[in-house]
From TrEMBL:
<dbReference type="Pfam" id="PF01321">
    <property type="entry name" value="Creatinase_N"/>
</dbReference>
<dbReference type="Pfam" id="PF00557">
    <property type="entry name" value="Peptidase_M24"/>
</dbReference>
<dbReference type="InterPro" id="IPR036005">
    <property type="entry name" value="Creatinase/aminopeptidase-like"/>
</dbReference>
<dbReference type="InterPro" id="IPR000994">
    <property type="entry name" value="Pept_M24"/>
</dbReference>
<feature type="domain" description="Peptidase M24">
    <location>
        <begin position="135"/>
        <end position="336"/>
    </location>
</feature>
<feature type="domain" description="Creatinase N-terminal">
    <location>
        <begin position="2"/>
        <end position="126"/>
    </location>
</feature>
<dbReference type="GO" id="GO:0004177">
    <property type="term" value="F:aminopeptidase activity"/>
</dbReference>
<dbReference type="InterPro" id="IPR001714">
    <property type="entry name" value="Pept_M24_MAP"/>
</dbReference>
<dbReference type="InterPro" id="IPR050659">
    <property type="entry name" value="Peptidase_M24B"/>
</dbReference>
<protein>
    <recommendedName>
        <fullName>Xaa-Pro aminopeptidase</fullName>
    </recommendedName>
</protein>
<dbReference type="InterPro" id="IPR029149">
    <property type="entry name" value="Creatin/AminoP/Spt16_N"/>
</dbReference>
<dbReference type="InterPro" id="IPR000587">
    <property type="entry name" value="Creatinase_N"/>
</dbReference>
<dbReference type="GO" id="GO:0008235">
    <property type="term" value="F:metalloexopeptidase activity"/>
</dbReference>
Amino acid sequence: MAKLRLFLTQHQVDMKIISGRQNIRYLTGFSGNAATLLVSKNEAYLITDYRYYERAREETQNIKVELRDRDAETLGRCIARCFPSFESVAFEAAHYSVEQWHAISADLPYKHLKSASGWVESLREVKDEQEVSFIQRAAQIADESLEEVLSLVKEGVEERELALELDYKMRRKGSEGVSFDTILLFAERSALPHGSPSARRLKHGDFILIDFGAVVNGYRSDMTRTYVYGKPTDKQKSIFNTVQQAQRRALEHVKQGINCEDLNRLAHQVLADSPFAKYAGEGLGHSLGLDLHEQPFLKPNTSYHLKSGNVITIEPGIYIPNFGGVRLEEDIVVTEQGYQCLTNAPQTFEL
């Protein structure tokens, strides 16, 4: 909150209207939705309705929780009631539709309204020790759950059956939910980078691609493993080895100060030099935290130099239509000299 208030001073803004759910959680600890946060240089109000009022009071400190009757008072009028006399106010344009902002701004008395997205997101890029510990625990839950689910792999099992078991086991081990809809695909369907589990049944020789994550105190993990059920063909082994080599090339160079696009280029060069170059995925990874995909992204034309405390994924992939795909993904925290790996499930290929 103190760092955010420095932005207010630097940009000559009296108050910031924050509506991004994860931005609000990051700044206040409030884990619900249907809330708006107002931050001035000296005060902060969290506006919510009767459904979340008591919860907001329990989860926040040094924040004034303001109850709004949605039927009797517009959000704009409530904002103006909390702070009636400011000149310049910034808002998160990325988190409002045009229609929503027109309705809110019609009731605001401020002389200057400025679009100012990305302030809180920039603060969230570097994780502190507590944040890293949450992601590490989420990754541990995912590691343990995957190990148990792999014992259920057998011929004839459905994609959606295994996916459901994986989600259930993560919840049983303490996950608040799933980091995202679990991706679990067999055979040629593994070439769908973000496919949904279906009724497809497993057969010997099929690829098995599993991309999933757990959630601890709002913080997410994100891991991918790819297997073959039975003895892999030479082509399957070649694809797997290429992806694994690309990931290792990137990991060898991860440390504070390296540019994201350079890291992506190093891994992509391995894929580009392989027989599967035209099937390579474009990006190498992304940051993660309260959101699954956060800044920075590891992809072309992304000039961001990694900082100690960034938590990122390294996930090269090859996706061949009508044949299958391989992706390997690790969650790592960047350090001054290298990185610490948070995901620890073995990269076994043959099941």
